[in-house]
Amino acid sequence: MIKRTLYFGNPAYLSTKLEQLVIRRDDQPKITVPVEDIGAVILDHPAVTVSQALLARLLDANVAVVTADERHMQHSVYLRHCGSSEISEAHTRRVKGFLPPKGQVSILRITDKQFGMIENFVGKQTAPPIREPQQLEMF
């Protein structure tokens, strides 16, 4: 099944209810989209609000969430951990199918061992090591 890419370039409030993405805009009826039908969500306006519950649901469903700054340049990306190289390659093929006409897309693959060697710093002190995650989320 082909997944949908949802682009938000105008103010909106996005939430979730009953496995649906709920879109609310001023003076317009709400719209719902099944989360299982979504492949990517692009947030390209500073007045788009996303509920924490929706963000968690999208990541659980392997939906790529991309935010952009005021110049419409990519600001951040949120993706799930891939449990194997085969799954990682499938996601790479999916990303290639949704490449934007402008901008740059980079894919960074790291192993669980590499992730386990991350060093975190808070100020000048080393932060305690991160516990092994149930799911890896990159922000």
What does this protein look like?
This protein has a single domain, classed as Ribosomal Protein L15, Chain: K, domain 2, CATH 3.100.10.20. The longest helix is centred in the middle third of the chain and has 12 residues, at 85-96. It is globular and about 50 Å long. The mean pLDDT is 80. A hairpin with a 6-residue loop joins strand 3 (20-24) and strand 4. The strands form three sheets. Strands 1-5-7-8-11 form a five-stranded mixed β-sheet, with helices on one face. The relative contact order is 0.14. It has three helices and eleven strands; from the N terminus they run E-E-E-E-E-E-H-E-E-H-H-E-E-E. The chain is of the alpha/beta class. It is 19% helix and 34% strand. It has helices at 52-60, 85-96, 112-116; strands at residues 4-8, 12-17, 20-24, 31-34, 38-43, 48-50, 64-68, 74-80, 121-122, 125-126, 137-138.
